[in-house]
Amino acid sequence: MSLKKWCKNNYNKVLFVSLCVFSSIVYIQFIIGHYATDTYNIAYVGYDTYMKNWYLTDGRIFSAIFLFIMKIFNLSVESANTISLLFAIVITNISVMKIFNWTEKYVQIKNIKEKIILLIICYVIFWNFTYIENMYFLESSIMALSVLFYTMSAISLVEKNKYSFLKALMFAILGIISYQGTIGFLFILTALLTFIKNPKNYKANIVDIVKSGLIAGMAVIVDFAIVAIVENLIGTKQTRLSDFTRIFLNIKIILRNTKDVLTETCNLYPENLFIIWIIALLAILFVYEIKNKDEIIKEKISVILKYILLVILAIFSSSVIYIISMSGFWAGRLRFAIGSLIGILFLYIATQTRLFFRKEAKEKTFVSDVTIVLLVIYFLTVVVFNVFFMYEHRQVNKLEKQESERILEYISKYEEETKNEVKKVQVITIECEEEKSYYSQVAAHNVLTYNGLSANWSAVGCLNFFSQKELIEEKGEISQEILYEVMDNVEDEVCIGDTIYMKCYMY
Could you tell me whether strands 499-504 and 493-496 are parallel, antiparallel, or unpaired per DSSP bridges? Predict the structure, then answer.
C-alpha cells in the first residue's frame, strides 16, 4: 500500500499523530523542563504528604494515584512533570478528535481543506488561551483527563444512546474526581452539541442543557461525599470551600468582577481582545443571517439567540464554582469554559452556516473568506501567546534560581559571622502588594510568572529546591520585636537566630 493511500485510509490516525507532534512543538519549553510554584511545594513536602494533604483532601483521586505511581518508581518532580505533560498532550488531542469525529456526522465536508478547517476549530476549543495554566502544573495529565471525561459526558448525554444519562453521569463523576475546576465545560459543550444535533428542536436543547446541570450537580455531591470520607479516614480538613454564610457575598464578588475577568482574561490574552472576538463573530453571523434567503425569520433569530446563549452559559459556567469558593478566582485553569468559548463559537457558526463548509463553490463569499482568515488569526494568537508565556515562565525559573543562590550566600555569610546555624524558615505574608510577586525583568503578570520565592505557599520549597538546603518551615506567631525588625529591613529576607524570615507578596 502506498503512503498516500495509507494516509487516506487512516486519516484519523494521521491527524491525531499530527496534532500530538504539533502540540509537542508548541509546548516544548514546558516538556524540556520547568517548575510551577506548586512543583516546589511537592518537592519540599514529598509525594506522600502532598498526595494526602492536597490531592486527597481536595477529592482529586486520580492526581493522588498519579503521585503514588511517581513515588513507586522513585521519579523526580522533573521526570514526573515531563511524563505528565506528554500524557496531557495525548489525552487533550483525544478530546480534540472526539469532537472532530462527532461533528463530521453533522456537516458535509468535501475535501482535505475543509477537514483541516474543522480540525483547527476543534483544536482551539481545547488548546485555548486558558489551557496553558492546566499544562503549567505537574498534574497537567489529570487536568486533561478531566476535560476528556467531561467531553465524553456531553457526547453521551446528547447522543441519547442506551443508558446515555447514566453514562454521562459516570463520565462526569470521573471528571470531577480528576479535577473539579473544568466542570463548567460540561454545560457549554452540551449546549453546543445539542444545538448542532437538534438545530430546530428547542425542547431537546432545553432538556439537554438542564440535564447537564443536573449531572454536574450530582457529580459535585459525589465529590463532596468523597471529600468527607477522606477527611474521616486520614484526618485532613478541606479548606478551599467557603462557609455557606458567605454564598451571597461570593455572588456579589462574582457579579462585581465578571467584567474584569472578561476584559483581562486572567492576563492570559490581550486585554479586551476576547470581547472583540465575541462581537466580531456575532457581527459575521448577523450579516450571514441577513443575507441568507434559505431560512425564515424565526430560524434566523433562533440562530443568533443560541449564539448569545452560548456566551451567557460560558460566563455562568466558569463562575458558578466561586459561589462556594473564592479560591483561585483569577485563575485561568478555572475559567476553561471561557477559554473554550471562541472555539465553540467558531464551531457553532461552522455548523449553523455555510461560511466554512459550502455545498457549492459559488457559495464562496467575502464574508466566508473573512471568517476563515479570522479563524487562522485566532489560532495563531493563541499559539503565539502560549509560547510567549512559556518563555516568560522559564525566565522566572532562572531568576528564582539566581535569587535562591543569592539568599544562600546571605545565609552562609550570616552563619559565618554569627556562628548561628540557620535551620528554619518563617514566611511573613504582606497583603495588598501582589505586584511585588513578579520580577521586574518579566513583562507578563499572570499565574505562570509568579516569583516562587514571593508566594507564601511555595517560598520554602523554592528556596530549598535551588539552594539544596533542608530548611524547615516554622509556623506560628512572631514576636512584635522580631516582626518590627523584619518589616523595617529593606531586604525581603532577614536572618535572626536560627531562622530566616522571608517576606511574601502572593497569598
Answer: antiparallel
